[in-house]
Specification:
With about 180 residues, this protein is mainly alpha-helical. It has a single domain (about 40-175), classed as Mitochondrial carrier fold, CATH 1.50.40. About 70% of the residues lie in helices and about 0% in strands. It has six helices and no strands. It has helices spanning about 20-30, 40-45, 50-65, 70-100, 115-130, 135-180. Helix 4 crosses helix 5. The relative contact order is 0.10.
């Protein structure tokens, strides 16, 4: 019997909490502890996304013609390009992660449950390259725009910190000379 809030009500059983803890409890009870760790391998591989993003941003920044401070507009576009590259390179891992998390436990007939590599092979075999990149355009729109603003803001904050630091060093040097 449903209580209208997505949970079940029963006077003889303990009340299962809502939210994250309720979800964990229900998964554990229905599918066992392994269900909580599905997709972990692909999640660990996905740490390569920000690594690629920051490497590409620094590399693109170094390729610029000028060695002056980077402008906000340059940071915006270089950050967008770096994130686009990182997203395109790692998107199949996100597809595998989603499939692994949504797959029902105990379905031995599904080869993608053998882990991330098996999942990627199964998607490629079933749908080809298009299957590995299905849904990339909305993801690019979301992540590239977010990264572009983040890098533009990062460069402004970095510039302000460097400026304040230089001013602070000058003040300290002036005070040190007066003390002598």
């Amino acid at each position: 019997m449903s209580n209208g809030a997505g949970g079940s009500s029963s006077s003889s059983s303990a009340r299962v909490p809502e939210g994250v803890f309720g979800t964990v409890h229900r998964m554990w009870a229905a599918e066992g502890a392994r269900a909580l760790w599905r997709g972990l391998g692909s999640s660990l591989w996905l740490v390569s996304n920000p690594v690629i993003q920051f490497f590409a941003y620094d590399w693109l920044k170094a390729l610029r013609w000028s060695s002056n401070d980077i402008s906000t507009l340059e940071a915006f576009f270089l950050g967008a390009l770096a994130k686009a590259l990182a997203t395109v390179l790692t998107f199949p891992l996100q597809v595998a992660q989603s499939r692994l998390r949504l797959a029902p436990a105990g379905d031995a007939l599904r080869p993608e449950l053998g882990g991330m590599v098996a999942c990627l092979r199964a998607v490629y075999k079933e749908k080809g390259l298009r299957g590995l990149y299905f849904g990339i355009f909305p993801k690019l729109l979301q992540s590239v725009s977010q990264a572009a603003f983040m890098f533009a803001f990062y460069e402004k904050v970095h510039w302000a910190i460097r400026r304040l630091s230089r001013q602070g060093v000058r003040k300290l040097a002036g005070r040190a000379q007066r003390l002598r």
